[in-house]
Amino acid sequence: MRRYLVIALPYLWLLGLFLVPFLIVLKISLSDLNLSIPPYLPQLDPSAGWAGLKDFFSQLDFENFVFLTEDDLYWKAYLSSLKIAVVATFFTLCVGYPMAYGMARAPSEWRPTLMMLVILPFWTSFLIRVYSWMGILSNEGFLNQFLLWTGIISEPLVIMNTTTAVYIGIVYTYLPFMILPIYSALEKMDDSLLEAAEDLGCSRLQAFWLVTFPLSKSGIIAGCFLVFIPSIGEFVIPSLLGGSDTLMIGKVLWEEFFNNRDWPVASAVAVILLAILVIPIILFQRNEQKQREADG
Amino acid sequence: MPANGAPIFAPWDDPAAKPLIRFENVTKRFGDFTAIDNLTLDIYEREFFALLGPSGCGKTTMMRMLAGFETPTEGKIYVGGQDMGPIAPNQRPVNMMFQSYALFPHLSVYENIAFGLRRDGKPKDEIHHRVEEMLRMVRLQKFAKRKPHQISGGQRQRVALARSLAKEPKLLLLDEPLGALDAKLREDTQFELMDIQENTGTTFVIVTHDQEEAMTVASRIAVMDEGKVMQVSTPDRIYEFPDNAYVADFIGDVNLIEGRSSAAIDETVQIEWAEGQQAITAQTSRAITAGQKVFYAIRPEKVTISPDRPADAVNAAQGKILDIAYLGNLSTYHVQLPTGQVIKSQMANTRRISRRPYTWEDEVWVSWTKTGGSVLEG
Amino acid sequence: MRRFSWFNLTSLTLGFAFLYLPMLILVIYSFNESKLVTVWAGFSTKWYGELMQNEAFLDAAWVTLQVGVISSTIATVLGTMAAHIMVRGGRFFGRTLFSGMIYAPLVMPEVITGLSLLLLFIGIGLDRGVLTIVLAHTTFSMCYVSVVVSSRLVSFDKSLEEAALDLGCTPFQAFRLVTLPIIMPAVISGWLLAFTLSLDDLVIASFTAGPSATTLPIKIFSSVRLGVSPEINALSTIMIGIVTVGVIGFSVISKRNIARAEADARAAERT
């Protein structure tokens, strides 16, 4: 009896607060805009019974999705989100890999401390971490002050409210997600493998390319997905650092909902965003699966 | 065993004795895999019963079914005449000592032993009294307050034993209880286990893959293979009178010779086993028919080695020494016959090695008596 | 003994500078006298004083704390149950759906989670406020808790539970007396994670909060949208300080526990 209660409680909670809401989004994405509260049609009228249900379904259509393809704002936003996520993921890898490598090859008594230093920002407010860059990147910010002082530039750089600022924000906030899987892949690696490679005639650099790098591949893939997937739907970073120039779909959805109050279109945007995310999520799952099997 | 002339403990030979445990046509399948195949087995009160077999033979599954962690796919298990089918693990008069010991790491030695007693809601002093008694039994009074990770492996094993005996179960199941101990400690602990079993009068069922361990501790052994019981008997009968080639081969070292037998006349058969070799004369109580394929199993220590053919030998063959395995107290000689077959002979090293009578390439005779080996149906 | 190579030392130094300098600057400038956030005008704690006077911030902080404690506690209970089902539950109807619902919120963009929950609350006519934020936060953080707890349960020696059953526990007693005390560290980590996620969350809270209840991140967001402010710097410094002390304290304690366990193990070998 208790067993069923233990299963039922979290199950029903997730059904009611995760699955049902999502079905509502799906339903509203197929509805029409209505200028009352709630601002969409049709409403399901349970008292009308079977006829009401049939009527309800007959009124659903793909109008909002057609609208999304017609207005180039939306597909531009999807494309630009994808582009930003890809580029930012690449930069994060470039910053994260050497750090993960440095950690994995650090003296073993240092490793827990380094690990803690990587995790610590993760516990700190995301919003604050993004905010901390606002004072650095603005025209009178610390970066420009510093560069002007050193004489590298004579005019302040415009970084704030550009896509560059968004890249910096993503790299900064998601860096731990990149470092941790790569580190755990590199840390498992047996030192004698490198010695064997050098013994068999590799130079140090060759040994890295032929042994270390391939062995950390699964960590790299995991890290990239962990950065890429949340970056696509990111809202805080583009709205604080990206300004009005940066088009990202999370922001579009937010504005569609809060500013234009067009719930059906916002829901359609959400449904497509999720459809786009399904592919990388499945690939990520597959990589994890493979990794688990390899680990036995 | 009682030494003062009391009857020998052998309830399995008494047709009136009621078994404590009865497996009745038990089959257990995991998906397509059959772990236990239509198995029927009786175990009697006060027995020290060993389930012996290689890993994957189903012995652990049998034990887990007794404890209630697995349910039979078919058949019934009775303990004390009661069908165990509907009874949950926590309601069974059975306790188990786990291979990993499964000591609760967050509880002290004392609390671990008291755990089961507390579940029964016994009065406090009774629990305390019983725990003290158990601690005394396993000589761990000094370690009562320690946590499991603060004591040694051998001590952990004794805590696990004390914990599972604390509730005075009718039946104690021991899953490879000595597997984690080193060889020396294991030997001491085997005798300790036997003492405890005898003093408490509990029925023990032990699962092991170590045949020496089973031979040492058990009153009876069930040799298992692929979900089937190959033979159930006392250790000496298992060794000297194996029922089949599997048991003969699994327990101890053996020479297995395949051949064709004549019909049994006066419990004696002639086995043709190789071109140009004299037929083996062997005694058997089995009803063997003429021309039947049989295995002849003879233990190496029953094979004598000599420079010439002994005059009175019933069975003898000439060969060359191929290998000598020196084990200290014993040496095993591998003698190759002209047919290519190798017969092992074991001799006690009563002399120092420098004066060993045989060496490599020596021409020798191996011989054995009519009753030395067993005739097994193939 | 391995040493740092020059390459590794450089990449680590630069990397950690990148991770920590922005926050360090934030902390330093929270003690700036000037209203201008990029010009140093002498040491002062006046922004902390002003922060303490700001009723709106204090109210929001109080709401955030309430939401955090309540939602992470419920999430820990539900998430631990869910983890137990996933690891020990065996087969039951809709198991695949269940594990899907556990993992999906982890990768679901916050904007979608927020939007869908808001549409649900409006659909069933639930007034937005503390309750709705708690419901929303519990839902996504229970999934994180269940991932943390189930990874501990996977490595949990099942024979301990069986031993408890064997010694007369009901399945529930076995969980309460044996499993739970042993996996407690993972449950606590799960709670801390859920609590942090709740304190941190802007997007989902923005969708599910009503005019009656505003959380701190919402308040911070609406204020920083207009630009950098020294008051927010002060607030950030306080939050960073709490987290730093918490994380370092936690790791010192766990390090000490590990050291003690190792010493015990060595002592046990000698007995």
TrEMBL record, chain A:
> Where exactly are the transmembrane stretches of this chain?
12-30, 77-101, 113-134, 165-186, 207-229, 263-284
What biological process terms from GO does the record include? Answer: transmembrane transport
CDD domains membership = TM_PBP2 (cd06261)
Q: Which residues form the ABC transmembrane type-1 domain?
A: 78-284
Q: Identify the keywords attached in UniProt to this record, alphabetized.
A: Cell membrane, Membrane, Transmembrane, Transmembrane helix, Transport
Q: Which InterPro entries match?
A: MetI-like, MetI-like_sf
Keyword flag Zinc-finger: no
Q: Name one GO cellular component term.
A: plasma membrane
State the compartments where it is located: Cell membrane
The annotated topology with respect to the bilayer is: Multi-pass membrane protein
Q: Which PANTHER family match?
A: INNER MEMBRANE ABC TRANSPORTER PERMEASE PROTEIN YDCU-RELATED-RELATED (PTHR42929), PUTRESCINE TRANSPORT SYSTEM PERMEASE PROTEIN POTH (PTHR42929:SF3)
Q: Which family does it belong to?
A: Belongs to the binding-protein-dependent transport system permease family. CysTW subfamily.
The protein, known as: Putrescine transport system permease protein PotH
Organism this protein belongs to: Donghicola eburneus
Automatic annotation (TrEMBL), chain B:
**Does the record's keyword annotation contain ATP-binding?**
yes
Broadest EC class? translocase
Q: Which GO terms describe its biological process?
A: putrescine transport
Domain called ABC transporter: residue spans? 21-251
- Cellular component terms per the entry's GO annotation: ATP-binding cassette (ABC) transporter complex
GO molecular function terms attached to this record: ABC-type polyamine transporter activity; ATP binding; ATP hydrolysis activity
Q: What is its EC number?
A: 7.6.2.11
Domain of life per record: Bacteria
Query: Which transformation does this protein catalyse, written as a reaction?
Result: ATP + H2O + polyamine-[polyamine-binding protein]Side 1 = ADP + phosphate + polyamineSide 2 + [polyamine-binding protein]Side 1
Under InterPro entries, the record lists: AAA+_ATPase, ABC_SmlMolc_Importer, ABC_transporter-like_ATP-bd, ABC_transporter-like_CS, Mo/tungstate-bd_C_term_dom, P-loop_NTPase, PotA-like, Transp-assoc_OB_typ2
- Which SMART domains has this protein been placed in? AAA
UniProt keywords, alphabetically: ATP-binding, Cell inner membrane, Cell membrane, Membrane, Nucleotide-binding, Translocase, Transport
In the record, the note on similarity to other proteins reads:
Belongs to the ABC transporter superfamily. Spermidine/putrescine importer (TC 3.A.1.11.1) family.
Q: How does it assemble?
A: The complex is composed of two ATP-binding proteins (PotA), two transmembrane proteins (PotB and PotC) and a solute-binding protein (PotD).
Q: What does this protein do?
A: Part of the ABC transporter complex PotABCD involved in spermidine/putrescine import. Responsible for energy coupling to the transport system.
Check the record and name the NCBIfam families matching this protein.
Answer: potA
Record-given protein name: Spermidine/putrescine import ATP-binding protein PotA
Organism this protein belongs to: Donghicola eburneus
From TrEMBL, chain C:
Where is it localised?
Answer: Cell membrane
Keyword Cell membrane listed: yes
Membrane spanning residue stretches:
12-31, 60-81, 102-124, 130-154, 174-194, 232-253
Q: Which InterPro entries match?
A: Bact_Polyamine_Transport, MetI-like, MetI-like_sf
Extract the Gene3D superfamilies matched here.
MetI-like (1.10.3720.10)
PROSITE patterns given in the database record: ABC_TM1
The UniProt similarity line reads: Belongs to the binding-protein-dependent transport system permease family. CysTW subfamily.
In terms of PANTHER family, this protein maps to: PUTRESCINE TRANSPORT SYSTEM PERMEASE PROTEIN POTI
Query: What name does UniProt use for this protein?
Result: Putrescine transport system permease protein PotI
Give the organism's phylogenetic lineage: Bacteria, Pseudomonadati, Pseudomonadota, Alphaproteobacteria, Rhodobacterales
